[in-house]
Model the fold of this input.
Amino acid sequence: SEPLVRVALTNVGDCLHNACMVNILIRDVPDTVHAQLVAGAEAAGQSLQRYLLHRLEAQAAQTDIERAIGEWTSLAQARAASTDLSWAAADLIGEARHERDNHVAQVVDDARR
Done:
């Protein structure tokens, strides 16, 4: 009876692990695109799955940074309209872009490891 309990607990653990992970299926990928992605994964020394995950993470980070830049720009414009603005909007945008570039470079470096 004891081995059955272990198997059941192991299966429950597997289910819990898989429950928190999302799967994405992309259909109808052209052969040329697939070949380019495989080549990129091989060049990075990664499996195709790991390579694609890192690419998706970099894209998600880029989107978050662009959203933040938009919010900072809106905030700067609101401040300029209502009070003395200590930082110019161009400075805020430049700083946000610098942070974005550093973050994207870090994600790319992590993806290559």
